[in-house]
Write a structure and sequence with these properties.
- By secondary structure, the protein is of the alpha+beta class.
- The chain contains 7 helices and 12 strands.
- The longest helix has 18 residues.
Length: about 270
């Protein structure tokens, strides 16, 4: 996966050519939120075949949306929303009845950690913009939000498709267990463990781009995956500790979060409590 952030010979940050046309900001209206939900529907329901709520209006929406901050990436050349994710903070999760991930995992170990937490979910990029720039710009917005409001942890689910009967998910988990599991005190337990794969499959096993991005930032995969039958994916729970980012990302990733060429002035402090 390409990155939207490039560095010159002296290690200074500069945006890629494609990233220069992209801006990131929080949804400021119901219209903005619906634009995010419409993109989610196009990606998750139409492209990937997920069973989602709101299909009558061609929207992907659920009970958590009203409690979330919706982060949007737009193409400034046409105003089109081409990427989005939603942020559920610890404060807002208390109002929503818990984090979305609690519906899939026992998060007892995670919720005992000291410090502030934010959960991201429903991350998606328009198929026409999957060159790496859009996800990079989206990450820069998340980093800025995390820094502005002094969150210690970012968490969420990264999905692995089960369209091949689960072969890829099980092969990936062999690698993730060996390289990216944390100590038992940070592990979670899925409410619906992943079934054994159906049939055999040959070929290369590729890490999904979002999961790969998390792993590059030093995130933990905190245990076995949960089976999500509505989306037909295996979800793994991800935990990113801001203080344990690799050194090169602590310097460059957070610097990129404040770069005006990528984080547009439309980024504003959310109106709801964080």
């Amino acid at each position: 996966m390409h990155t939207a952030l490039r560095y010159d010979d002296q290690g200074s940050w500069r945006p890629s050519d494609e990233a220069l046309s992209l801006t990131v900001g929080l949804a400021a209206s119901e219209c903005d939120v619906k634009a995010s939900q419409r993109l989610r529907y196009q990606v998750f329901a139409q492209e990937l075949g997920a069973q989602v709520k709101g299909h009558q209006e061609a929207l992907d929406c659920d009970a958590y949306d009203p409690f979330c901050h919706h982060l949007l990436v737009r193409d400034s050349r046409n105003g089109r929303v081409i990427g989005s994710t939603r942020i559920l903070t610890d404060t807002q999760a208390a109002c929503a009845g818990g984090f979305y991930s609690q519906g899939e995992f026992d998060l007892g170990n995670i919720l005992r950690l000291p410090g502030r937490m934010m959960e991201v979910g429903r991350t998606c990029i328009d198929p026409d913009y999957r060159t790496g720039a859009a996800i990079g710009v989206l990450w820069s917005g998340l980093a800025r939000f995390m820094a502005m409001h002094q969150f210690d942890y970012l968490m969420g689910c990264a999905s692995i498709s089960l369209q091949d009967g689960g072969y890829t998910a099980h092969r990936l988990m062999e690698r993730l267990r060996a390289q990216h599991f944390p100590e038992p005190a940070l592990q979670v337990r899925p409410h619906h463990p992943l079934p054994l794969p159906s049939g055999a499959h040959q070929g290369n096993v590729l890490t999904p781009p979002l999961l790969k991005a998390y792993l590059r930032l030093g995130a933990y995969v905190c245990g076995e995956p949960c089976w999500d039958p509505d989306f037909q994916v295996a979800d793994v729970f991800i935990l990113l500790d801001r203080d344990k980012l690799p050194h090169r990302y602590q310097r460059h990733f957070l610097r990129a979060a404040m770069a005006p060429a990528v984080v547009h002035h439309a980024y504003a402090k959310p109106k709801t409590h964080v």
